[in-house]
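DATA CLASS: polypeptide
GOAL: derive C-alpha cells

***
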Amino acid sequence: MSAKLKKEYVHLYPYMATIILGPSGLGQTNCFLKYEKIVKFLNKKYGRYLQRKEKKDFLIEELIYSRKCHPLSVGLIEINTIWKTERFQIEAWLFGSDDDIHIEIEYYFTPTGSDVHKYEEKQLNKVL
C-alpha cells in the first residue's frame, strides 16, 4: 500500500499525526481485509478497540454492485474504530472518495497536566 504521513503541531508541541494508506494497494476486492489487518495490528499494540462505528447511507439499498468494496469507494459506507491510551486517542477510518479507497490512522495527543508543564518548562529554559 502507498502511505503518507502528516504531522500537526501547536506551538512546536506535537498535536496530531495522520497516516494515510492507499489508494494504491487497496482495491474493490481487498479493502475490508486490509482494514481488518490494520485493526488487528492496532488491537495487538494498544489493546482491544474501545468503539467501532459503521455509517451506511440509505442509498446503499438502491445500489446494484458486484464487488463488496464498491459501496465504500463511492462513499456510501464509512467505518471508524477508536482506541484510547493514557496519552493518545487513535482512530482508524476506512472510507472512499472519488472511486478511491483509503485507510487513515489518526493519533491525537492528549496531554496530561504534567506533560503540558514539562513542555512549558522546556520552552522557558529555551528562552532563558
Notes: The longest helix spans residues 31-46. The radius of gyration is 18 Å. The chain is about 25% helix and 40% strand.
